[in-house]
């Protein structure tokens, strides 16, 4: 992953062909070229080919795919992921997050460190479960989803970088991946079947999907709903928790940013409960999250397969070729970012009037395939962070360094441990 970033920076954004044994994809990192692939000529660059096989094995033919399945899912799901709709579910998310934080109070009282990646996954899981399933899922089943999805997302790394190896040949991670997908299905599929039998009038996503899919009458509703829910869950829960895990080493290294975050939470939230209506006033927190996603975008690579011959920035690409687009790479280009390797939320906190290229920053993708979870992240992540900082003053146990490991999302190889000091004794 860092090698890809080095290739992009050395080429100054020019198209680079990478040699991976018999596999030779093109790395596309210049914002003009990214825009061409994701928006300008997007129908010529499809989500298909060897890089997509591992994801297809867990998410199926869903909102993350292409073709009729994607079009159908997008049409149904897009109205459910507007800022207005997501905001209407935010109070339930706060309740779910606060319940998880209350369970951490004994750790804070005793000074026991916690694996913050694991705890963030648990909090994000409960918040997203509320959005997706409402009260239709038992807590014991909900708690099985986060670790299963984390395993699925991290166990296909070998195949991600060796995509030419046939699936008839076992490789490291295959067994763990298969077990994880079976666990996910054992939780999600029964919920889908029940929802299709009785959609109800709830505002949760599964109810809305069941009402829409139930009207199609072509028998494809169950599988399509399963695939969409698994995809949405991954985009909304696993990636949010993974991104926020990177925040603590960054805050440890930048105490000025930490102090300003606390000041804003104290001013906006105070000692009372977090209210979703406070989110627009947490402006600096949003800048911190935007800069976090610049350095550690959860969706770090967007592969595409070329349908017909084309030219990208003067480089001819043939049909059937693979193109790799990576916000992790583009967000580190010196030509578009001052001090690109530095964590500096002021890039987003200050309105300098300077216009940035639309595709110099694209942590949620772009064009027709832009991630539907964008609005959900900017509600879920600041709510989670505000609730946490209102109660505790997290202290990093091990300052690192931490190594970025590419998988379904960018995660630290090492465990990030925090001590959660109660605010009144910090």
Structure characterization notes:
This protein is α+β, with helices and mostly antiparallel strands. It has one domain (2-425): Cytochrome P450 (Cytochrome p450, Orthogonal Bundle), CATH 1.10.630.10. Helices cover 52% and strands 10% of the residues. The protein contains 19 helices and 12 strands. The protein has helices at 2-10, 31-40, 53-59, 68-77, 83-88, 90-103, 105-110, 116-133, 139-154, 157-161, 174-197, 205-214, 221-245, 247-253, 255-268, 283-295, 327-330, 346-349, 374-391, and strands spanning 16-17, 26-28, 45-46, 114-115, 302-306, 310-312, 315-317, 322-325, 392-396, 404-406, 410-412, 417-422. The chain has a 5-stranded mixed β-sheet. β10 (404-406) and β11 form a beta hairpin. α9 packs across α11 (174-197) and α11 (174-197) packs across α13 (221-245). The two termini are 38 Å apart.
């Amino acid at each position: 992953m860092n090698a890809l970033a080095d290739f992009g920076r050395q080429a100054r954004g020019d198209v680079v062909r990478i040699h991976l044994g018999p596999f030779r994809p093109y790395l596309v990192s210049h914002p003009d070229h990214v825009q061409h692939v994701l928006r300008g000529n997007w129908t010529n660059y499809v989500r298909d080919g060897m890089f997509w096989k591992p994801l297809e094995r867990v998410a199926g033919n869903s909102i993350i795919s292409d073709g009729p399945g994607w079009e159908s899912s997008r049409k149904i799901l897009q109205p459910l992921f507007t800022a207005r709709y997501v905001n209407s579910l935010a109070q339930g998310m706060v309740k779910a997050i606060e319940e998880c934080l209350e369970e951490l109070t004994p750790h804070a009282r005793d000074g026991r460190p916690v694996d913050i990646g694991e705890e963030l996954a648990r909090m994000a899981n409960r918040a997203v479960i509320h959005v997706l399933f409402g009260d239709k899922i038992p807590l014991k089943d909900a708690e099985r989803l986060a670790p299963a999805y984390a395993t699925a997302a991290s166990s296909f790394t070998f195949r991600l970088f060796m995509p030419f190896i046939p699936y008839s040949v076992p490789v490291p991670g295959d067994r763990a991946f298969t077990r994880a997908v079976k666990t996910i299905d054992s939780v999600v599929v029964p919920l889908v079947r029940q929802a299709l039998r009785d959609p109800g009038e709830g505002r949760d996503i599964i109810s809305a999907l069941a009402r829409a899919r139930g009207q199609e009458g072509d028998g494809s509703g169950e599988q399509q709903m399963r695939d969409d829910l698994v995809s949405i869950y991954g985009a909304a829960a696993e990636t949010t928790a993974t991104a926020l895990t990177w925040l603590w080493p960054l805050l440890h290294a930048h105490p000025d940013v930490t102090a300003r975050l606390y000041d804003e939470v104290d001013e906006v939230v105070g000692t009372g409960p977090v209210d979703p209506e406070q989110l627009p006033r947490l402006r600096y927190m949003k800048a911190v999250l935007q800069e976090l996603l610049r350095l550690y975008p959860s969706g770090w690579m967007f592969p595409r397969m070329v349908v017909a011959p084309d030219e990208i920035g003067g480089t001819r690409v043939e049909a059937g070729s693979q193109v790799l687009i990576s916000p992790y790479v583009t967000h580190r280009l010196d030509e578009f970012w001052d001090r690109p390797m530095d964590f500096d939320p002021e890039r987003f906190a200050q309105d300098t009037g300077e216009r940035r290229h639309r595709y110099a920053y694209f942590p949620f993708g772009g064009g027709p395939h832009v991630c539907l979870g964008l609005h959900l992240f900017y509600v879920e992540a600041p709510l989670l962070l505000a609730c946490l900082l209102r109660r505790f003053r997290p202290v990093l146990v091990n300052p690192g360094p931490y190594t970025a490991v590419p998988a379904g999302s960018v995660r630290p190889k090492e465990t990030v441990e925090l001590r959660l000091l109660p605010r009144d004794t910090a």
